[in-house]
Amino acid sequence: xxxxxxxxxxxxxxxxxxxxxxxxxxxxxxxxxxxxxxxxxxxxxxxxxxxxxxxxxxxxxxxxxxxxxxxxxxxxxxxxxxxxxxxxxxxxxxxxxxxxxxxxxxxxxxxxxxxxxxxxxxxxxxxxxxxxxxxxxxxxxxxxxxxxxxxxxxxxxxxxxxxxxxxxxxxxxxxxxxxxxxxxxxxxxxxxxxxxxxxxxxxxxxxxxxxxxxxxxxxxxxxxxxxxxxxxxxxxxxxxxxxxxxxxxxxxxxxxxxxxxxxxxxxxxxxxxxxxxxxxxxxxxxxxxxxxxxxxxxxxxxxxxxxxxxxxxxxxxxxxxxxxxxxxxxxxxxxxxxxxxxxxxxxxxxxxxxxxxxxxxxxxxxxxxxxxxxxxxxxxxxxxxxxxxxxxxxxxxxxxxxxxxxxxxxxxxxxxxxxxxxxxxxxxxxxxxxxxxxxxxxxxxxxxxxxxxxxxxxxxxxx
Length: 463
Fold this sequence. Notes:
Elements: E1 5-9, H1 13-23, E2 28-32, H2 35-44, E3 49-53, H3 61-69, E4 76-81, H4 86-94, E5 99-102, H5 108-132, H6 149-161, E6 168-171, H7 178-187, E7 196-200, H8 206-214, H9 231-234, E8 239-243, H10 250-262, E9 264-266, E10 273-275, E11 279-284, H11 288-294, H12 299-305, E12 308-311, H13 322-336, E13 343-344, H14 346-354, H15 360-374, E14 379-380, H16 387-390, H17 418-432, H18 437-444, H19 448-457
Parallel strand pairs: 1-2, 1-3, 3-4, 4-5, 6-11, 6-12, 7-8, 8-11, 13-14
Antiparallel strand pairs: 9-10
Helix pairs in contact: 2-3, 10-12, 13-15, 17-18, 18-19
C-alpha cells in the first residue's frame, strides 16, 4: 500500500531535514523552503497532507493553507508555529487549517498521530461528501451527516424522491433531523428556486393554525385588522413543510385533505377559491397509524400524506455516525467560540458511544458545544463532557429546583432537557470560577448580561 504523501514547508534547513528524517518511514516526504515553491509542488501533484510553518519568506503559512484548500482535492493542512498564539491558531482554523501545533512543544510521536488522525477524519468527511453530492454540489444533502447503512439508504430515498412531485411523510423522534430532510428534498427538487415554507403545527392553536396556513380576510375574526396571505399562497411554486402534523385539529385535517386533492382552498372569512401549486412534506414523531385506529387522525389524510415514507433512525440505532457528527460539531463550535479544539480522545468518544441519546443528534450537538466550552486543551477529554453523559444514572437538577448556595440535586423522571443541561453548565461554570460571574460568562462563551438573564430565568442564587 502506498504511503500518504506529505509536503513539509519550512525555511529552516535543520527543521525540514529533521522532520523528513523522522517521518519518512510513515510518509512519502516532499519539502519546500517557501510558499512559492510549495505552491508549485501543490499544482504539480496531489498531496495527502501539508505541514507548514507559520513564518515563511514573502508569504505566511496561513495564506499557503488558503491556497492549498482552494485546490480541487485539498490536502489535510497542519500549521506549525513557534509563537504559540491562540489568536493565530484560531485564525488559521477559520481559514482552513485542520490542526495546529506549537514548535516549542513539538514531539514527533504526537505530530505523527495528529497527522494520521487528521487524515482519517478527512477520509471520513470525503466519503460522506461523495455519498451526498451526486445531484447538487451547493445544496442537497450537505447538512445531513452520516455514513451508517441506514443513513445511506435514506440518502438514496431522498435522491429518488426529490425530483418528483410526491408528497412525503417523514417519521422520526425529536432531534433526528426531520427538517433537514425536508430541506434536502426541496433543495434537490425542481422547486428549489421557489420558497420552502415551514410551519410548526404544534406551536399554534387550531384557530391560529388555520389562519397561518390559509390566510384570512380583514374582519374574519376578532383581531383580523387586515387581510393576511397564508402559507399555502406564500409557498406557491415551492414546498410547504408541515412539522408535527400529528398535532393538527380535525377541522384543519379536512381542509388539508381537500387541498391535497384539489390544490385549492379559501382564506378564512372568504368564499373565493384560490389555487396554489405547492408540494407538501409532513413530519411527525407520533405514530399516525395508531392515531388512525383511535380515530384521532383521518385515515384518508394519512394515506394521502404517506405517498413516500421516510423513517429516520434514532441516534442510538446508528452510533457509527457519532464520530463523524462529533468531528463536525467540534469544528463548528471551536470556530464559534474562538477556541483551538481539534479532536476528542478515545475515552471521551467511548462515553459518547455508550450513551443512548434520547435527544438524538440535537442532544449530541449541545453536548459537543458544552465540551468545547470547557475544553482546556486542543482535544476534548472525558472531564469536558457533561456529567449526565459520564454518569447517565446520576441524579440531576430538575428544571424547577430552588438553588441556594449550592445546587440541590433531585432525580428527574427522564433524561436532561436542553434547558436543564444549560442550567447545569451555568452552575458548573460558576462553581469553577468561584462565583465570579464575569469569568463564568467568559468560560461559557456568553455575555455577562446574558448570564444575568439566565440566572434569573433558572432562579439560580449566588454560588
